[in-house]
Each structure stands twice: as C-alpha cells, then as structure tokens.
Amino acid sequence: MKENPSIRVTILLAYFILTIGGKEVKCITQEENTSAIPLNKKVNKTILVDESDVYDCIDVNLQPAFSHPLLKDHKIQMEPSSFPLSTSTKSPLMDAIPQAHLARIECPIGTIPILRNNRRVQMPVETIGKVISQDEHEVAGIEYFDVLYGTRAKINVYNPMVKNNSKDLSASWVQISKVQKVGVADGIGAGSWVYPSYSGDNFARFHVAWLDGLKTCPDHDCGAFVQVSSSIGLGGRLTPVSIYNGPQYLIDVIIFKDPKTKNWWVAYGPQNIHIGYWPREIFHFMKDQCNYALWGGYVQGPTASSNSPQMGSGHFASEGFGKAAFVSNIQIVDNEGMYVTPNDKQTGLVATNLSKYTAKAHGYGYSHYGVHTYYGGPGGFV
Questions:
Q1: Cβ contacts of residue 364 below 8 Å, gap of 6+?
Q2: Which of 106, 183, 223, 356 has its CB surrounded by the most CB atoms within 10 Å?
Q3: Cα–chain-centroid distance for residue 260?
Q4: What is the pTM of this model?
Q5: Rounded Cα distance, 319 and 264, in Å
Q6: How far apart are alpha carbons 93 and 281 in whole angstroms?
Q7: Residues 193-200, mean pLDDT to the nearest whole number
Q8: How far does CA 251 lie from the centroid of its chain?
Q9: Do you find a cis peptide bond into 240, omega within 30 degrees of 0?
Q10: What Pfam families does the database record attribute to this sequence (predicted)?
C-alpha cells in the first residue's frame, strides 16, 4: 500500500451505524413528557430509552424527508431491490470481536423513530458544514480515488475525548463521495460521532449524514434521509464502547446504490439489515456513481488544528490492536454489484497532521479479507 500523508481532500464528513442490542426502553404518555419540545401532532407513540433519549414514532410517510422540495412526489421504497453480492470476508480475529449496540426501539409498523434533542446547542444546520478550511479539519485512515458504487467495513467504536465547551467533532467514519473539484462534492457517510455541541453530551452516537456542497446534514436534518426501519434510532448511543488495552467492540456498516432505483442505501450487520436511504433526486453528482471514499477518523471544528480533540482511541496507529482504533474488512462495490477489495493503485494512507494523528496498514493489508487500517491520535490531549 502506498502512503501519502500529504493528501488533503476538503470534503466534509458526517456519519453512522450500529447493531441493535438489548437496552431498556419504555413508553411515555403525553402527561409524562418531560421534553422542552412539545409533542408533535404527528406523533404516534413516544419511547424513552435508558432514561435519557426520547424518540417520537412518526408516520413513515410524514417524516422530515418529504418536506424536501425535490421529494414532494417521491414514492417511498421500503426495501432495496437487491444487495451487493460477495464471497465470504470472514476473518477469525475480527469475527470474534462483539458488536456495539443501539437500543431496540419498537415503533408501530408504518412509523419510524426520530430522536428529540433539546440538549444540543441550537445552531443552523448550515453552520455544521461550513467548517471546511484546511486548518479546521483533519483526517487519518485510507482514501480511495476511483469509481465505486458502495462500500462495507467494520468500524472499531471508541469514545474519544472532545471538549464540552467546543464545537468540535470526532468521528470514526465511512464516507463515499462524487468529487467534481476541490470543495465541490456530493457525499454520504455513516459511523460513530462524539459531537457535544450537536448531541448535548460526550457519548459516542450512531449517525448517518449527507454532504450537499458545503453543508453537512446529519440524520433527518435538511430532510434528505428516508428512513424505513421502525426499530433503529439514528443519533442513539453506541454501547458498549472499546476500552484502551481492554475489550473491543465494532459496528458493521454498509452503503450501496440500489441498481434499479439508484437510491443510496445504508444497512448494517452481516444480515444486511436496511435502515433507509438517500433518494437519487437530492444529488447533484452522485446520481450514478462515486469516485472517492474515506475509511478512518475525522475531526472538525474551530480547534481541530490547535486544541484539537482525540481521534479514535486517542492513541497513535503504531500501538496496534487493542490500543489503536481500526477499520477492517474494507471492500467496495464494483460496477457488477460485487464486493471487491480496493485496488492498491487507487488507494493510499492519509494522515493530514502526523504530530496529532497517524494511520497505517495492518494485519492482512490487501487480501480477500479486504483492506485494514489502524488510525488515530491524541490531538491536543497530550
């Protein structure tokens, strides 16, 4: 694998995914509602998760996506027409690592869960995506520069330190994009965020995101993502998280284009459990394919290059398994709808600030198991 630490692609990220686990949930009535946000008249049911996160069950046909002007006549697709095909990518070490989980949310059939959040700093969605200058974001991981139609990977989940009083973000992430020129792109992603000014706390949470030019839209913000799952709550906490030199946990993420509808789906796990999709209509450039991918860590914000947050485990890639964060079993979807290992001639390591964050190939490198990388670092927490 070639290493190119100087590569800088000014593409703003966002992210997501998770496997459902056995967390405690309970229903609350309108009289029990303690949220500062009034119950919406469209709410079918309200569910409290772990005494902290409140989800409203909304009619699937009345979700925020259908307020988008380009989706007024969109017909909802409840499941993919097909999934990418593959040969087995099971590797003994990675398959032995347990999954991090989201709480199971039992919204009624025909509804989807949407997280209320009255803890976050109220700011226009546009400001999330305007942190795009070179000194306000850093990346470390693996980049790919060629045509692809999706990807899958296993993301090691940690809870990196991000200062409460900052507007910084630290993500463990998978992203695919169609880049026209520097700073002009469509993109989508999924993974784990720690983003205090957005979520109101310092927990690792599962997000998906859509990049529209210079604006990043997490989950249901901007009315771009169409959710079909009634049991997966975007923005929910990922638990348990990995511990340095201790137990490790991961999530399986899949993003791919439906070959018939050309919608871009997000799914997770070996069972290809589909969560939802970004409709083809919302994209400027990604109506058919992508030409860029990133797997690894991403930090952004006003202090990303000065008093910067941790990335991954908060330790450098050279420390290896159990100490440095990883993304493993990385594969892309080719034009025949097959999962394949990325070509090493179009793939390279990236680390935009080696004094704070690093990346390295590990384990099998390039093989039938896919591509693997360690990444991360302490940032300003030294």
A1: 91, 370, 372
A2: 356
A3: 24
A4: 0.85
A5: 36
A6: 40
A7: 92
A8: 10
A9: yes
A10: Neprosin, Neprosin_AP
Tell me the pLDDT tens digit for each residue of 288-310. 999 999 999 999 876 665 678 99
Q: Check residue 131 and report its DSSP letter.
A: -
For 306-315, what is the mean pLDDT? 91
Give how far Cα 232 sits from Cα of 19, 81, 268, 277, Å.
9, 20, 11, 13
| CA atoms of 301 and 46, how far apart (whole Å) | 33
User: What token pair was written down for 313?
Assistant: 């485990």
CA distances in angstroms from 298 to 86, 119, 120, 315, 322, listed in the order given: 28, 23, 21, 14, 20
The answer, yes or no, to whether residue 267 has pLDDT greater than 80, is yes
The larger pLDDT score, comparing residue 2 to residue 234, is at 234
Backbone angles phi, psi at 352, to 5 degrees: -80, -10
